[in-house]
Design goal:
With 888 residues, this protein is of the alpha/beta class. It contains 31 helices and 37 strands.
Length: 888
Amino acid sequence: MVVGGKDLGPVEPEGKPRRVCVVTSVIGRPGEDDAAMPALARLFAGDGDDVTLVWVPGPDAPSSEVVATHRGELEAASIRLQVLDRSDQLLPWLATPESRSAAVLHYLERSGHDLVYAPLEGGLPYFTLLAAETAAFVAPPIVIVAHAPSEWADEADKAFIDSTQAIAVAHMEKYCAEMADSTICASAALRKWMLSRGWKVRKATVAPLLRDPLDQTGARTIARKSASELVVLAGWRVRDGLTLFCDALDILAPTAPEGLKVTAFGPFGRIMGEHSGGLLLRRAERWPFKLNLLPGADLNARLDHVARTGGLAVVPARAASTGGVVAACIAAGVPIVATNIGANAEAWIAEAGQPGLVDPDPAALARAISAALDSPPRPQPIVRQNRQAWLDTRAAPRKRARKGAAPSPLVSIVMAHRNRPLYLKQAIAAIEAQTYRDLELVLVDDGSDQDEARRLLDALEPDFRRRGWKILRRPHRHLGAARNAGVRAAKGELILFADDDNALFPEAVDHFVRAMAATGADICTAFQLIFYEDVVPEKRADGLIQYLPLGGPDALGLIHNVYGDANAMVRRSVFSRIGFLVEEPGYAVHDWEFFARASLAGLKIRPIPKPLYWYRSRPDSMFRTSNWYDNRRPVLETFGSGQFDGAGPLYQLAIAQNTTRSELESARENLRYTPAYRDYLELCDLEPDSDVALQKLAGIAGSIGRPETAAGLLGRPATMAVDAPGRPRDGGGSTTLAYEVLRSARLLTPRASALPLLLVAPDGGGVFLRPHADGVVAASLDLHFPPFFRRVEATVEIAHADAPAMDFALALARPDQTIDWQGDIAAQTFAFSGWTTVEEKFVRHSLATALRARRKMPLSIALAVRFAGRPNGSPTNAFFRQLVLFSD
């Protein structure tokens, strides 16, 4: 079949269902971009294909109930669901992007699919494509679907790369986009972005993401009345533009129509550290509008809400790679005001009669909203059909076939050895069992001084001479020098380093030679199976792959060895171009430094994502007994040689990991400066979409006079009361400390006593302190006086008829401050109430202290009692019944 001027190969014969595998990392909600891959599965199954949806959920594995629900829905559409949360070749969890990608490869090697679709995001097909490139797997055609690469998302959200894992994912995604049989971008804007970053994707095609056949993103019946509700279709990410929307409403507020309502939906998240729902509620203090916050709804439900209420949808995006929300609004025929950014322009259809797109500027957005409210548009629903275009993508290239007989160059296996005769016998036996015949072994003995090792070398000499192999006996000069000597003595065009304590699989050399020919690589490394015994295991099922080298990028190569293990194949020409291995005595990571030097010189390194040898791990190995500093110093020198030009991600990493939380989460930090926002600040530290966060958000809404907002969050009628969570709120910027806080009180003055000196009574009983004849008894509520609060007041009481007079005091201090209670307390603390003498029994008295200036740091509240005179031997019940904090 010819598509776009290219012959993409034959279509499967009629009558034989095409076996299609669709890979996904998420099963999103209808209408969302995350649902695009399951939507493809439904489309292909509906067209008669034999479809399997492979779900790779990552470290947060779904519950069995969630899996059962999805499985039932997919089986009803004739789709098999395969949840890929482990691989029998890996450790029993898929905690990294590398492990998830390897698990996909292991699945596909056994599945027999004719065609594979996979998302670009996360790099799931990375090792499958690498296996195809290195001829380790005759993979079916791989079609990559791209909508939001991690590097694009970071830029759009104004975030620097903050982890080495993120650098790895960006590398994997770029490779997948470039090496796939077909790459499909969700928009021309995204393809343009890739090209601007140097991605080799000129042949990539553009197709809007497919919506699920069950998706009801179609024409709606619109309530025909003047728009009295703004419905913001924006998530919590910076690129979604929620703050832009708030800025526009600040401008619109003075002139907005009376009775206007604003509706926003979860799921909630954090914007510069602030809870997105809290952000809307806080900003709404400036607006005369009602605010409706609904905790969660998919795009269909949001569009239904717009249609039902006759509202105006607002899409205030600051960046858009798919334009999917705009396209859905146009298909539904709901009036929309949207920003002219990224892929939104591609999704726009002028014939629909919608207002034009606007610049992502608060004033422009406010004007556009005002105009649409004054003269509500009456758009026509227009749907761009692209299902057939996606069906046509199945005419993918022919299945890969192994090339004919490749040249069989001489391979020189270079093996260094010293005093390990038992292991050496096993390593040589593995070489003798190789299926590749045109090879020689160059064994370099690095000064063995054990009799058994010397006798073995003597015994090996005759057979080596007969085979044309070599044994070099040299003084002990360490591993690097021994390997270099072996290279110089070798005759082969290809050099394969093999350690004497490892054991090659019989097909290893064959695979290495084939990979070198298929890729044109200068160096090929490979996966390995780990074992820990003195004898090589008989069954490969007894080993696990624990090291998954990516082969790059160099930015990660500075931090750890991403290239592969020393058991690698190297073209002889490499040594003439970059030199030999480091010969420094005791150096343990020759492979890392050598591979880094090669990569920085522009040589091509490719790992073969298939285990080709047994790797013996021992606690007394050179690597495990060496110093990490010594190992990295030569690597650092290599990267500092001036050849390294890929430090951009490392600069970002350094900035992201060494920027204070107050800068990274500036919106959250700003809440600290306004005492009245303390509850908003506490909301920021809760899981945004958790029940406790929604309850907290509803409580804040109720406490500031927005009962309808609170009711919407909790799904209750607006007439029902909503209690604020946590501490009771007294109004006027005051907060009463609850029992949960008081029970954290810590005794500061331990003294010998037959009875407890500190107790906390529930049900409003307060904190009990027992005075002592030896002096002051004090307790601390650590860090419970919030930043920027001004004052603390206590209600104190003597609760025993025979008790003597007592002195009570309050102080505010640093939690690490040790107070000498016999000295000048005021000089040791930020605020001190002075001592107040109480003689009356069962009469409550007020006690207070205040800061002279507000402080940014949280402080501790110290409570203290002492006898006013001499103790009379009677019981002494001294209570701090209530503690109230004031922000003014």
